């Protein structure tokens, strides 16, 4: 009776072959991403004739103030009786690190692309606990507020993951920020509803491409784990999965589908 001995490839050889395939996959992804896109070029050409978006701090000067007790009203912030409040001007996006104090921001709302239309403020990051925008009604003198943030009920927020506020051109705007995470505020002023839609589409298109590429890579890595049974591949797959979920959470996507408590829990992961 003849017996045949089969030789199996060494685990190191399998891993080396997988690494070569993975490098080819990465090269293919880079070539796809770097290829010219005629649709994107046409969109960029069309957007060149639209009124440009303006960033708070860089294009529109903003002033900010720390409220250590967090109990001040908009009237007290703008017209202190003792004159002890020290407003500081910033020519860049606000970034104060971790702080327990409430931060107030004020700026002048620019004109809209079309007279009579509103202006839009789109702000990041999404994980701020509470962001409240105040604008005074010139007819009644009362403050009108709009709310957003993780701790704000879903019915009071717009149906997108970013902080979105409708502004009236020519009026000063006042923003109150309170959060347990890092105090950051990056806002862009969009002069029309068309510019707002274009900005949101561009952001989600980019992130959609990112998550699509990551999902393809993770599927390939987990499939390789099932084939080669290597602890190095398992570690790489786990790290990539956790990193992708982290980006998904900090970008605020759970707030679109999950309830308020689950969204708050997810943003801390």
Kindly report the spatial arrangement of strands forming the biggest sheet. 3-2-5-10-7-8
The helix count comes to 7
Mean pLDDT: 81
Structural class: alpha+beta
- CATH T-level fold name of the largest domain: Immunoglobulin-like
Strand tally is: 11
Quick one: biggest sheet?
A: 6 strands, antiparallel
> End-to-end span in angstroms?
62 Å
Helicity level: 25-40%
Q: Globular, elongated, flat, extended or rod-shaped: what is the shape?
A: elongated
Q: How many structural domains can be distinguished in the coordinates?
A: 2
Q: SSE order in H/E notation?
A: HHEEHEEEEEEEEEHHHH
Report the β-strand fraction as a percent range.
15-25%
Low-confidence blocks of residues? 38-49
CATH class of the largest domain: Mainly Beta
Judging by the overall fold, what is the CATH architecture of the largest domain? Sandwich
The gyration radius over C-alpha positions equals: 25 Å
